[in-house]
Design goal:
- The complex is a heterodimer of chains A (about 110) and B (about 110).
- Helices cover about 0% and strands about 50% of the residues of chain A.
- The termini of chain A are far apart.
- The relative contact order of chain A is 0.33.
- Chain A has strands at about 5, 10-15, 20-25, 30-35, 45-50, 55, 65, 75-80, 85-95, 105, 110.
- Chain B is mainly β.
- Helices cover about 0% and strands about 55% of the residues of chain B.
- In chain B, strands 2, 4, 5, 9, 10 and 11 form a 6-stranded mixed beta sheet that branches.
- In chain B, β7 (about 60-65) and β8 (about 70-75) form a beta hairpin.
- The chains are: A mainly beta (about 110), B mainly beta (about 110).
- The interface between A and B is medium-sized, with 31 and 29 residues.
Chain lengths: ~110, ~110
């Protein structure tokens, strides 16, 4: 079955620690995205990548970093510079064309210890 | 004013009821409209995707767009307990790529048996 796999499902971060969230897709999509979901707010875009070895900042990129070394993979690192990292993180992918709907993984919930 | 607004709910209805979920938006350039269903601790799942004004039906679900009022709706007929989830609307303007999609905060629906 084609889809998007995010891991881990739950993650805990200590103060001053960087953590990395995994996202893998087998939909053969060019574009991949990372969103943050907080209660009462719409999804907010952190980073996106339209092609391997290229990525762009979204609306709330500060304190996060990404890489795109393979088409299938788009890991997100939450750095110690992100002062309020507790949230539900969603990875999505789509064809890179106008107005293509995005398909989502099942998310990673990050909490602070 | 937020770009896309949804009543956060929770909305509770008895099994078998007709449910109306709504979004209002401020950007008249939006032409593509999506509804996602998100179960607790899961990622959003695309339900409906419509272009411009009018209705689109898929089984028990009907999406309606009224661009003159900047208002979209999702109707669920014969609602079931399995429909209990949070429903997100999303929208984009013509020739937008995925990073420009705007998501509403979601409405939480509970269908009581």
């Amino acid at each position: 079955d084609g889809g998007i796999t995010q891991s881990p499902k739950y993650l805990f971060r200590k103060e001053g620690q960087n953590v990395t969230l995994s996202c893998e897709q087998n939909l053969n999509h060019d574009a991949m995205y990372w969103y943050r979901q907080d209660p009462g707010q719409g999804l907010r875009l952190i980073y996106y990548s339209q092609i391997v070895n290229d990525f762009q900042k979204g609306d709330i990129a500060e304190g996060y970093s990404v890489s795109r070394e393979k088409k299938e993979s788009f890991p997100l690192t939450v750095t110690s510079a992100q002062k309020n990292p507790t949230a539900f993180y969603l990875c999505a992918s789509s064809r890179w064309a106008t107005n293509q709907p995005q398909h989502f993984g099942d998310g990673t919930r990050l909490s602070i210890l | 004013q937020k770009e896309v607004e949804q009543d956060p709910g929770p909305l509770s209805v008895p099994e078998g009821a007709i449910v109306s979920l709504n979004c209002t938006y401020s950007n008249s350039a939006f032409q593509y409209f999506m509804w996602y269903r998100q179960y607790s601790r899961k990622g959003p799942e695309l339900l409906m995707y419509t272009y411009s004004s009018g209705n689109k039906e898929d089984g028990r679900f009907t999406a309606q767009v009224d661009k003159s009022s900047k208002y979209i709706s999702l109707f669920i007929r014969d609602s079931q307990p399995s429909d209990s989830a949070t429903y997100l609307c999303a929208m984009s303007a013509t020739r937008n790529y995925g990073q420009n999609f705007v998501f509403g905060p979601g409405t939480r629906l509970s269908v009581l048996p």
